[in-house]
Design goal:
5-stranded mixed sheet; mainly beta; 8-stranded mixed sheet
């Protein structure tokens, strides 16, 4: 019998979470002049993925604790596509893919992206199909002020294309989550948060992500 995730409190991934790099046009265009330089010597031909390990999963309502001298973090608002039992997309969630600010987005070091609590989760899973979210706009607010709007119409690979291109070299399993990428600001940076900031990520039809950033105890 086919099963799909159902909405419930404190949803969390049941499989592997994959992030996607350089999947928004603005950041692609900013990096494109350097793509022919060493060590790569050419623009990437396939999606660039990384893994958010299970220690990063932060349930809804849990604060982000800054540790080890980290004073601020990049806010990474994104949509996560949740894979169902039939291998197809069963629904999606809003996520905050936190990262320690760093300069290279080609091969991000684990220490910048996979710290404890560095993937903020919503309470609920939203059922649907990729066509439902082709023009989704994700709003990012910090302390009540809008600091970014992430527009999925600006993806380099739209949702069906991203799924198809990933499927060329790997099989997504039931419970896996494929994040579509995080967008940058005009200067190539991302919105940042420091201790005491309240971050809210929202979009129509989705449970929001709300996180307070706390300093080290």
């Amino acid at each position: 019998m086919q099963t799909t995730p159902t909405p419930h409190l404190h949803w969390q991934p049941q499989g592997t979470v994959y992030g996607t790099l350089l999947n928004f046009r603005r950041e692609w265009n900013l990096w494109s002049p350097r793509m022919t330089q060493d060590p790569h010597k050419a623009a990437p031909q396939a999606p660039i993925l990384y893994v958010k390990s299970a220690n990063t999963f932060s349930p809804a309502g849990q604060d982000l604790l800054l540790q080890d001298g980290v004073s601020e973090v990049d806010i990474g608002a994104t949509l996560g596509l949740v894979i169902g039992a039939d291998g197809q997309v069963a629904g999606a969630v809003l996520l905050c893919d936190w990262s320690v600010p760093h300069t290279s987005y080609y091969r991000p070091p684990v220490k910048y992206r996979c710290r404890d609590g560095f993937l903020a989760l919503p309470q609920q899973f939203t059922q649907g199909q990729v066509a439902d979210w082709a023009a989704l706009q994700i709003e990012v607010r910090r302390n009540g002020e809008r600091v970014q709007t992430v527009d999925l119409r600006e993806l380099v690979r739209d949702l069906p294309t991203l799924l198809a291109d990933v499927g060329e070299f790997m099989t997504l399993q039931a419970g896996d989550v494929l994040m579509v990428g995080t967008d940058c600001l005009a200067d190539g940076s991302r919105p940042r948060a420091k201790a005491g900031d309240r971050v809210e990520i929202s979009a129509p039809g989705f449970d929001p992500v709300n996180v307070t950033v706390g300093g080290a105890a």
